[in-house]
Amino acid sequence: MRVALIQLAYDDAETLDARVERVVALVREQAGHDLVVLPELWGAGGFSYREWSSRAQDVTGSIGTALSAAARDAGVFLHGGSIVERPASGETGEEGHDLWNTSVVYDASGTLVATYRKIHRFGFAGGEPKLMDAGTELVRVDVPAGSSSLAVGLSTCYDIRFPEMYRALLDRGAEAFVVPAAWPMARVDAWRLLLRARAVEDQCFVLACNTAGTHAKTQMGGHSAVIAPGGEVLAEAGEEQQVLSVEIDPSAVRDVRESFPVLADRRL
Ligand SMILES: NC(=O)CCC(=O)C(=O)O
Asked: Which residue positions does the secretion signal occupy (predicted)?
């Protein structure tokens, strides 16, 4: 199964339209991959809190429409990273906000097959908790891989600090976790550690796609990575924009779990 992580760099000068055009061109270049992943909030800007409301969209807005077409044209399963979602229905959340940090996933025909609203909001008293509602649903999506498939648990950036969420995804059958992110350089050591920790403790692949470049006065950390279910780093990006293209073998999950059956020793 061939996976591409598009570690995108952007700055404050680029318009949303120009960024969407650039991103969908990069997605189309990944034809031949089974799964392509983009970072968190690449359209609105991961740390551009002040812009989030004006850049919010329904999942069927301009970003979603462009991603759907790119997935179809490239013939790839596409995790489109996340958008600042403002549902066209006027829905509000339990805390009264009308915004969510929502991941959008398309199959190779361009159909929106899953959405995931980020459960753990980053920013303490500011940022996401101030502006957005928290998601409440765990989401697993099965990505076709040749004659079989890979069960992928969805998560976003700051979620990686909450191991109980990944255990819950494991209990829903996850064999891999996708982690789109806008994680800053200042804490990149923690990012690299946490990705491997989640892989080792749950014996799952971790496919983590971070942001690069500097926006909203925040330097992003890069270091997107693909981690095997035994914890080996199969590929890791540097600090600049880069596409990581990696072959993974879904049967490695079963092999690791059989040869070192630590999950069978859980005491609930
Ligand atoms: N966008 C995020 O969730 C950032 C998370 C982060 O910087 C951290 O957990 O540290």
From this structure: none
| For residues 215-231, average pLDDT | 98
Kindly give the distance from the C-alpha atom of residue 158 to the centroid of ligand 1, in angstroms, as a whole number.
Answer: 4
In this structure, are residues 180 and 209 in contact, taking their beta carbons and an 8 Å threshold? yes
Q: How many Å lie between the centroid of ligand 1 and the Cα of residue 112?
A: 26
Query: Are 14 and 57 within 8 A, CB to CB?
Result: no
Q: Which atom of ligand 1 is nearest to the CA of 161?
A: 9
For range 20-31, the mean pLDDT: 98
Site to probe by mutation for ligand 1, drawn from 130, 187, 195 as the one with most ligand atoms within 8 Å of Cβ, is: 187
Residue 254, CA distances (Å) to 150, 198, 204, 227 in order: 11, 17, 9, 15
| Token output for 187 | 């804490």
Summarize the confidence of residues 262-267 as an average pLDDT: 97
CA distance linking residue 43 with residue 23, whole number of Å:
9
Task: Return d(Cα 252, Cα 245) in angstroms, integer.
Answer: 18
pTM for the whole structure: 0.98
Tokens in use for 206? 């971790």
Q: Which residues are marked as active site?
A: 40, 118, 157
ipTM: 0.99
Which is the closest atom of ligand 1 to the Cα of 46?
A: 1
Q: What is the pLDDT of residues 90-116, one digit of tens each?
A: 999 999 999 999 999 999 999 999 999
Q: What confidence score (pLDDT) does residue 146 get?
A: 86
Exposure string over 170-182, b if 16+ CB within 10 A, otherwise e: beeebbbbbbbbb
Decide whether any atom of ligand 1 lies within 6 Å of the 183 Cβ.
yes
Give the CATH number of domain 2-261. 3.60.110.10
Closest atom of ligand 1 to 187 CA is 10
The confidence band for 125, taking pLDDT boundaries of 50, 70 and 90, is: confident
